[in-house]
Amino acid sequence: QDQIVESGGGLVQPGGSLRLSCVASPSIFNQNTMAWYRQAPGNEREVVAIVTHGRTKTYADSVQGRFRISRDNNQNTVYLQMNSLKPEDTAVYYCNAYMGSNLWTKFGYWGQGTQVTVSE
Predict the structure, then answer these.
(1) Measured between alpha carbons, how far is residue 78 from residues 15, 61, 119 in Å?
(2) Does an H or E element contain 7, and which?
(3) pLDDT by residue (tens digit) across 36-85?
(4) Which H or E element spans position 29?
(5) Model confidence pLDDT, tens digit, residues 5-45
(6) Which of 45, 58, 53 has its CA nearest to residue 107?
(7) Are 49 and 60 in contact (CB under 8 A)?
């Protein structure tokens, strides 16, 4: 059964840091490239960071140098360390498997996400 649980969001001031965690069921996590996504109000969901099973990482230009994705293959867990947060990082953050060519937009299952708010 597919299951994703994200946690770690919250309210933080600009320049602050948060660490998000995501535990996924083996059906989603095993051998798969995983990613963090985010969706701000009025915007489409977008890819933030990607990590392959072999831990090759890719970042959106908007977070390059500030965010760091990692995974623990023994714990079916993906992390997102977010530093130097900006108000424009405010969004609900989700994790899920990743497939290129925008195939990830066709996924039928998503977790509840975790809210990140960057504000004074």
Answers:
(1) 23, 20, 25
(2) strand 4-7
(3) 999 999 999 999 999 999 899 999 999 999 999 999 999 999 999 999 99
(4) helix 26-29
(5) 999 999 999 999 999 999 999 999 987 999 999 999 999 99
(6) 45
(7) yes
- What is d(CA 104, CA 79) in angstroms, rounded to the nearest whole number? 19
Report whether 97 contacts 28 (CB < 8 A).
yes
CB 84 within 8 A of CB 18: no
Residues recorded for the chain:
120
Spell out the residues 6+ positions from residue 108 whose beta carbon is closer than 8 angstroms to its own.
none
Q: Map tokens 């937009």 to a residue.
A: 105
From CA 104, how far away is CA 47, in angstroms rounded? 9
Q: Write down the pLDDT at residue 104.
A: 92
